[in-house]
Amino acid sequence: MRTKMNEAIKVTLKDLVDAGVKTTFTKKRMKELGIVVSETKISPGKIRQIRKSSHLSQAVFADLLNVSLSSVRHWEQGLRKPTGPTKVLLELLLKEPHILDYRIRKSKKSIAA
Q: Which of 44, 25, 47, 21 is nearest to 36 (CA)?
C-alpha cells in the first residue's frame, strides 16, 4: 500500500513540476520519490552553435543575454563556463531558438529606410 501511495505522489509531483506549479517538497523528498532536476551541461561548441544559428555577432548575443562580450568569447573558447540562470537560458535557446526574439526590435529608422 505504501509503495502505491509513494508512486501516486511521485506521479502527481512530477506533473506539478512539469506544469510549473510551485510545491513545498524539499529536494531530499523529491529525490526519495525519484524526481531529480537534471544537471544543465552546455559545451563551448553548443554555445557557438546557438549564437550562429541566431545569426548574431558575439557582441549582440552578449547584449541579448545581458552578459559581457568577454563572457561570450570565453564560453565559446572553453576558457570559462556559463553559470546559474545563464546556463539554463542557453539550454532553453538550444531547444527554442526564437525564445528571445522579442528582445530584438528593429528601430523605426531602419524600417522607414
A: 25
- Express the helix, strand and coil content of the chain in percent, nearest 5 each: 60, 0, 40
| CA–CA dist 3, 12 (Å, integer) | 14
pTM: 0.65
pLDDT tens for each residue of 73-97: 999 999 999 998 999 999 999 988 8
Residue 107 C-alpha cell reads as 528601430
> CATH second-level architecture of 44-103?
Orthogonal Bundle (1.10)
Inform me whether the pLDDT recorded for 20 exceeds 80. no
3-state secondary structure of 113: coil
Which grid coordinates belong to 94? 538550444
Strand, helix or coil for residue 97: coil
